[in-house]
């Protein structure tokens, strides 16, 4: 089948096989058609509203040693910080009350200082402000995910990073791909909206494994999927590798929109870091969410997952105005609701 026919099929049925995904990922001449189809599917299923999620990076301390990430445990070249409980809650209050955000996202490295009790205290503190609350704090037990939900958390983000099990084990020493998958099942079972995602352009990653990534998102029936290019960090073992491209990241994202038409998909910060119009391109190729970073600059500068990140997508007053202008310029608007997924497809993920 020609690429244009495959794209038409995906737009009509939201279903493609592995070989069909590979063919589209390999064909560079179909990119614009693919992006337009994903944009159209996004409009039909989730509309023109863009959901803003206020991101707070509350600790850059991490027990893991992921080879791609600047926060990895062995990186001594990084000043570590941990925000205080009341600082985190106060910043969330500011986001909700003063800036009108409908969702707060709490992200950190896997910092064991934040026990389940401490996290639940923070969750309860923030949930007073009538916002949806997303956590992105790594691998926990099923009981912990349940406790976060009981305390009021609404969503949880845990990228699978890559579905290529061997590549995962090479890049995430000491971690288990099987456990990560289990965590995603536990998150969904706890009643949290479940987010995952991958990096594109990891060293050794193949087109076929990107196709598998997209099929995995469908298999787990994810509610949110974040996709971004891998950007090499100079203080990591992958410093001399090439990294991913914006174009391929957009393709994986667009295909994800076609196969999971009703989910929430952010225009990721890594896309904007690679190109100044990366975010706008993403919003016109399937994305419907932006996560402005509201972490104070004194901390944000140290949350360096990859170089160039800390200047991107931050949410000082004037930056938010620029964002608002960008959104208006492409005929979209900032959504007024909390932006939960309104499921129009799929079933519950169980292992
Ligand atoms: N380039 C791009 N994304 C990265 N992440 C971590 N390190 C990098 C990097 N060097 C992503 C991972 C993680 C998310 C918080 O940031 O996918 O899940
Ligand atoms: Fe830690 Fe996450 Fe970075 Fe891995 S990707 S080192 S778990 S912060």
What can you tell me about this protein's structure?
The chain has 351 residues and is an alpha/beta fold. It has 14 helices and eight strands. Strands 1, 2, 3, 4, 5, 6, 7 and 8 form an eight-stranded parallel β-sheet that branches. Helix 2 (18-26) packs across helix 9 (207-219), helix 3 crosses helix 10 and helix 9 runs parallel beside helix 10 (246-259). The model has no long low-confidence stretch (mean pLDDT 95). Iron/sulfur cluster is lined by residues 62, 64, 66, 69, 71-72, 109-110, 138.
Task: Quickly list its features.
single chain, 351 residues, alpha/beta, 8-stranded parallel beta sheet, globular, binds 5'-deoxyadenosine, binds iron/sulfur cluster
Quickly count the helices: 14
Main sheet properties: 8 strands, parallel
Overall mean pLDDT = 95
Bound molecules: 5'-deoxyadenosine, iron/sulfur cluster
SSE sequence, one letter per element: HHHEHEHEHEHHEHEHHHEHHE
SSE blueprint and pairings:
Blueprint: H1 3-13, H2 18-26, H3 31-46, E1 49-59, H4 85-98, E2 103-108, H5 116-127, E3 132-136, H6 142-151, E4 155-157, H7 165-171, H8 177-189, E5 193-200, H9 207-219, E6 224-229, H10 246-259, H11 269-274, H12 278-283, E7 289-290, H13 297-300, H14 317-329, E8 333-334
Parallel strand pairs: 1-2, 1-7, 1-8, 2-3, 3-4, 4-5, 5-6
Helix pairs in contact: 1-3, 2-9, 3-10, 4-5, 5-6, 9-10
The chain binds 5'-deoxyadenosine and iron/sulfur cluster.
